[in-house]
Design goal:
Structural class: mainly alpha
Largest sheet: none
Helix content: over 70%
């Protein structure tokens, strides 16, 4: 099986006339099948680590920019598997991989491939160690900033989620880069898709939790609109985010915005949607519990990081 992998790698590597597009596509498909089998089998990761070091890394990374769409899709599928299962080895060449992804994302014409690139970046962020992700933070932010310029709403939502994961992973490092992403995220707060409005708000909430409290200044006007958003899902997300801000370590830094945030919660309480009312009541309970706990000398934050909201809402 190892010999077959080496042969397929030779085929996909030979792009200067030695192998046809059809041959490269078939070789890539065989590689995907082989690697999927190894990932699902016992002891497969050890062999994959060896193959990555010996022959897979550079050809696969190069295949991300192959002229054939099918080859690019397969390359990204293989890389997602490898980053997820043998990230300790793959991350040794992460700089090369991220550079290739950034270049291809900037010129990729196929929406599905761009979405796959962002999906790979998400796996990098969630699978690799905090230290490695921190080392490559600047490149990751550059890729995500580029991804936010896309017109595909699925990619925008996915990118916002990756930004949230990145801020949760390395908050002290991300505070240095929030400024380069703020404007793009704020621009998507009034997006016509409710999932994008929620996802961008959640990402900005993580920025506030990192210490970028000026974000609240920048979105103050938007908060009024989100509090009366036509989507119950967005309003529930806002309720959770307000509770997060007013119970986190940065709550004293945003105390000037408490009247605004309280007005938003009152607006949510006046909703005619039961789920929104319940969410606002829960947020008020958490905020008041934190306030009284702090008065008693217990500064424990009872609210976990905001999760992606799965409550029903109309997507318009």
């Amino acid at each position: 099986m190892t010999e077959n992998v080496h042969n397929d790698v030779l085929v996909i590597s030979n792009t200067q006339g030695g192998s046809s597009t059809f041959q490269r596509k078939k070789a890539a498909e065989r590689l995907l099948s082989t690697i999927t089998t190894k990932v699902n089998g016992s002891g497969g990761n050890v062999e994959l680590e060896k193959l990555w070091t010996e022959c897979l890394s550079s050809p696969l990374i190069a295949l991300v920019s192959d002229q054939t769409e099918r080859c690019r899709v397969i390359a990204l599928s293989i890389l997602k598997l490898l980053v997820e299962h043998i990230h300790n080895v793959v991350q040794t060449q992460l700089a090369q991989l991220l550079q290739s992804c950034e270049i291809q994302l900037g010129k990729e014409e196929v929406e599905e491939v761009r979405v796959d690139i962002v999906a790979l970046i998400d796996i990098v962020v969630t699978s690799c160690s905090d230290v490695i992700v921190s080392q490559h933070c600047e490149r990751l932010v550059a890729i995500l900033r580029l991804a936010l310029t896309d017109k595909n709403h699925h990619q925008i939502e996915q990118t916002c989620n990756v930004i949230t994961h990145l801020a949760q992973k390395i908050p002290t490092r991300m505070i240095l880069f929030t400024g380069s992403l703020n404007a793009s995220l704020i621009r998507h707060l009034p997006d016509r898709h409710q999932r994008i409005r929620s996802a961008s708000l959640l990402a900005l909430t993580e920025f506030v939790s990192c210490g970028a409290v000026k974000v609240v200044d920048n979105i103050a006007e938007q908060l009024y609109l989100l509090a009366i958003d036509h989507s119950p899902s967005v309003r529930i997300t806002l309720s959770k985010c307000i509770a997060r801000w007013l119970t986190s370590d940065v709550r004293l830094s945003i105390r000037e915005h408490k009247p605004l945030l309280n007005m938003c919660l009152l607006s949510l309480l006046a909703s005619n949607v039961p789920d929104v009312i319940v969410s606002a009541q829960e947020s008020l309970l958490i905020i008041s519990s934190t306030y009284f706990a702090s008065k008693m000398g217990d500064t424990h934050n009872p609210l976990p990081p905001c999760a992606t909201n799965n409550n029903p809402g109309t997507d318009r």
